[in-house]
Amino acid sequence: MQNQKVLILGGSGFVGRHVCERLNQLEIKMTVMTRKGDAKSVKHLPFVDVIQGNPHDPKALKEALIGHTAVINLIAVLHGNEDEFERVHERLPTSIANSCAELGIKRLIHISALGADQSAPSMYLRSKARGEQTLHSTAKTKGLNLTLIRPSVIFGLDDKFINVFAGLQKYFPFIPLAGAESKFQPVWVVDVAHAIAHCMIDPHSAHQTFELGGPDVKTLREIVEFAGLWSHHNRPVFGLPPFSAYLQALVMEHLPGPTLMSRDNLLSMRVDNVLSSQLPGLTSLGVEHAQSLYGVFGVNEPNKS
After folding, report:
1. Secondary structure of residue 46 in the 3-state scheme
2. What pLDDT score was predicted for residue 256?
3. What residues have CB less than 8 Å from 197, skipping those under 6 apart?
């Protein structure tokens, strides 16, 4: 591990912070590339260097890759149009893979998404699948040691998932919810970080695709109810019929501030976000006992003491 040096793209984000912390524990040298070059959340870690640069600029990306032995790509977008999804989920991975091949960097770990499929109902999931396809093609023709990781929705104490739902219930007397019965298998960010770090030290994880999910399958309604229970502001949750859900997503797309829900998100939720049981998962990546929402947040599960 002492001879490894990994370039992490998206290293200052929610998942990236935890990945950097885990790799730092393993004393693996890292470079985090960010547009602003600050990355305050990881800059203090002794095995992390922070550089400024735009990973979507092929020249800047290639310069950043020099001197590294591996790349972890965590960059993704949840909201956008077809061009934005293509830019982030297809063109960027293609650029990363081609630059790695040119520089002789063999190891590439790419974070995709559970449910990625070219016939999926949403732009997000289709673009993730096309990104996987181009990476597979490049890895095969240019000899890259590629690992694809497909997580379900990722949660943590500092996330923008459970905390958003908890915050909404603080101010609203009830929650009208689109996609209320959609199923997810939430996975703890620390478990995801440990799985990614395991890929860095286990050469057998190359040329494989892993699905990451937690121990419990929950509907979105149950997740929102959990957030209310944890925040002590639990409100009634009302599932919306399809047309009302569509209107809610349309309105929320155009509200000021960060987008909380889009019509494309709604389309993604037509496919249950749960493990297929056809691919290896957390246990194959060194995580024997995945943590649940209740365990991480310290909440007693209903009907359990």
Report:
1. coil
2. 85
3. 19, 22, 23, 26, 28
Identify whether the C-beta of residue 6 lies closer than 8 Å to the C-beta of residue 68.
yes
Beta strand pairing call for 218-219 and 183-184: antiparallel
pLDDT for position 305: 47
Residue in the structure block whose two tokens are 């909201």: 79
Contacts of 235-243 with CB under 8 Å at 24 or more apart are 235/169, 235/172, 235/173, 235/174, 235/175, 236/173, 236/174, 236/175, 237/174, 237/175, 237/177, 237/180, 238/174, 238/175, 238/176, 238/177, 238/180, 239/177, 239/180, 239/181, 240/176, 240/177, 240/178, 240/180
Residue 197's identity, in one-letter code, is A
Cβ-proximal residues to 128 (8 Å cutoff; 6+ apart), any chain:
76, 89, 112, 113, 116
CA separation for the pair 245, 252 (Å, rounded): 11
Q: Are 39 and 11 in contact (CB under 8 A)?
A: yes
In the prediction, which pLDDT does 35 show? 87
Mean pLDDT across the stretch 108-114? 98
